Amino acid sequence: MKNIRNFAIIAHVDHGKSTLADRLIELCGNISNREMKNQILDSMPLERERGITIKAQTVRLNYKAKDGNEYQLNIIDTPGHVDFSYEVSRSLIACESSLLIIDATQGVEAQTISNVYHAIEENHEIMPVLNKIDLPSAEPDKVIKELEEMIGIDGSNSIMVSAKRGIGINELLEKIVTDLPAPDGDPNAPLRALLIDSWYDVYLGIVILIRVKDGCISLGDDITMMSNNKKYIVDRLGIFNPKMEKCQTLYSGEIGFITAAIKDIEETAIGDTITHTKNPTLSPFPGFKSSNPVVFCGIFPKDETNFSEMKKSIAKLKLNDNSFHYEVEKSTALGTGFRCGFLGLLHMDIICERLRRESNIDLVATAPSVVYKVVMKDGKVIEIYNPSDLPDPSEIQHIEEPWIKGTVITSADYLGAIITLCEEKRGEHINLTYVNNQVMLEYNLPLNEIVFDFNDSVKSLSKGFASFNYELSDYRPGKLVKVSIIVHNNIVDGLSFITHYDKAPQQGRDVCSKLKDLIQRHQFKIAIQAAIGGKIIARETIAGFRKGVTDKLYGGDRTRKMKLLEKQKEGKKRMEGLGKVNIPQSAFLAVAQVNKK
Ligand code: GDP
Ligand code: MG
Would you state the pLDDT for residue 477? Predict the structure, then answer.
């Protein structure tokens, strides 16, 4: 055990985690030059295309140190994007220390700070690593100062590396061995293993990633998951180096995977304790809070006959990503589909994209919405995942919305613009800290104001130099209303949205005018209205076609002409009565865009 080092690589997005993992794998992994490729741990096609890490990945390396000993390094490469901070948290519980990577040209950014705080909460030893020192714009001294003043960690012994050019990697490996702690745990105690992650593999079925704290686990062992008392027999066991490699036993301090003919992924709770059925541990882990989706939207097949096909695909996706939730939803406008919950908008985007690709079905996604808590007059509290489900206003005492604590790190040049943005978003100023020319700005903000595009706004206002991160804080009452969109006298359920009272009129007008452009002209006149309860707050009209029914008539037979026009009018009336207005897919996106304002 004294020759094991378990650590996570944490950083703000794009600071070079995956590239650093590549260098470590190249030097110590069991992989040939031919098999090596950039960001090797980003194995999902989407991760490779977008250049981001979505799932945390684990790899075991063997390193022969200068002291002559062989060390086992278990590395977890984590995603940086705020949507996936859950992945980061659960990776951290599996190890004792963290390499904190900071891009020396960018300095400390918003996710650097939140990641460090998570690592500190887990009592991690944190080793700062300044990356990209090959670039002329690298300013290590400035970054070291930021580390000390913004986060309060000693940056003086930071290691300078260039993950891309392979500079400083050997020094880093030596430091890992000499400065990071070995795992603790009792090899002779009953088995106590932590469930870090689980996923579905086409060949192996459900695979779980575990960290053995006490005792050891071997092929053929009878095991119990302590949270639900389910029993299994270990039928496969191994490690990733980064290829999957089977072994006989995982010992105290080690990280590896097992399979055990587990049928249902719901039986594998992150943070659960795995122990031997015959000789169980008396001190299970405290458990791990499950991830809660924060953004919901409806996803429908464009063609309703594809529903069952889509159901299969969505169930399959869920096996690989337990943080995503779904249930069947029926909509009068869109037919039968699913109401889905996500960790954030990037997560939603990725799931929709994967669904499209993996099922080959055309989808319509409705505008995303956060989860509201409605306190009813009779004292009941209900959670609203879909604006259409909001009860009648007369039954509601008040509505509460989720708030976040947001941190923006920006150069002082853009501070004014960013403060204005936060104020527009109903923000509440908390704190401001200067370090050199960098500013750390903290605001409380309603989640529904920032979830759609706040990050993009921060980036564009600062020409890419500012960064943003948030964590959920609490629920607060707000002056919130549901805006219904009525097309041709029918409420279109997929288009309703909940918003702040003050913003409703403008957003209502924006949606109506967008819809006016998007809905094609029909034979009859179409009214598009936005309403709060019974009160219309915006209106647009699309004129009907006047089909040239009289075009074929020559000369001036007036009575025949009138007759034809009369007949056309009747026909239009009939159609109007049936009132089937085709609402294009783009209309559902339009609501999402308007909400961004
Ligand atoms: P991650 O999001 O933290 O995993 O970052 P990646 O490893 O995907 O790297 C982000 C980008 O930075 C990629 O384009 C890398 O090629 C680049 N990069 C990473 N390390 C270095 C470095 O040391 N020097 C330079 N110049 N670029 C680097
Ligand atoms: Mg990465």
Answer: 96
Name the closest-CA residue to atom 24, ligand 1. Answer: 132
Q: How far apart are CA 492 and CA 582, in angstroms?
A: 11
The per-residue pLDDT for 578 is: 44
Looking at the fold, whether 26 and 96 belong to one and the same domain comes out as yes
Longest dimension (CA), the chain: 107
pLDDT at 571: 57
Ligand nearest to the CA of 21: 1
Q: Which helix (H) or strand (E) holds 331?
A: strand 325-331
Q: Are residues 324 and 464 in the same domain?
A: no
Question: 51 CA to middle of ligand 1, Å?
Answer: 10
Task: State residue 13's pLDDT score.
Answer: 85
Q: Work out the mean pLDDT of the chain and round it to a whole number.
A: 87
Give CA separation, 533 vs 485, 492, 498, in Å. 11, 14, 12
Residue 494: burial class (beta carbons within 10 Å; 0-12, 13-18, 19+)? buried
| Whether residue 124 sits in one domain with residue 110 | yes
> Would the pTM of this model clear 0.85, i.e. be above it?
no
163 C-beta closer than 6 A to ligand 1: yes
Q: What is the DSSP letter of 488?
A: T
What's the CATH code of the domain at 243?
A: 2.40.30.10
CA-21 nearest atom, ligand 1: 7
Query: Of 463, 478, 493, which residue constitutes the final position of a domain?
Result: 478
Reported as type and span, the H/E element at residue 345 is: helix 345-359
Ligand 1: does its nearest atom lie under 6 Å from the Cβ of 149?
Answer: no
Tokens representing 346? 């990037």
Per-residue pLDDT reduced to its tens digit, 312-353: 899 888 877 778 899 999 887 788 999 999 988 888 888 888
Q: Is the CB of 281 under 6 A from ligand 1?
A: no
The torsion angle over the Cα atoms of residues 68, 70, 76 and 80, rounded to 10 degrees, is: 20
Domain end: 340, 368, 396, which one? 368
For 414, the domain range is 373-478
Contact at 8 Å (CB) between 567 and 550? no
In a domain, 286, yes or no: no
Question: Using a 6 Å cutoff on CB, does residue 164 contact ligand 1?
Answer: yes
19 CA distance to ligand 1 middle (Å): 6
For 179-213, write each residue's pLDDT tens digit.
999 999 999 999 999 998 888 887 888 899 999 99
For the Cβ of 16 lying below 6 angstroms from any atom of ligand 1, the answer is: yes
Contact criterion met (CB below 8 Å) for 148 and 116: no
Checking DSSP bridges between strand 381-384 and strand 372-376, what pairing results, if any? Answer: antiparallel
For the Cβ of 53 lying below 6 angstroms from any atom of ligand 1, the answer is yes
Q: What is the pLDDT of residues 453-512, one digit of tens each?
A: 788 889 899 988 888 988 889 999 999 999 999 988 888 888 889 999 999 999 999 999
Instruction: Mark whether 356 and 427 lie in a shared domain.
Output: no
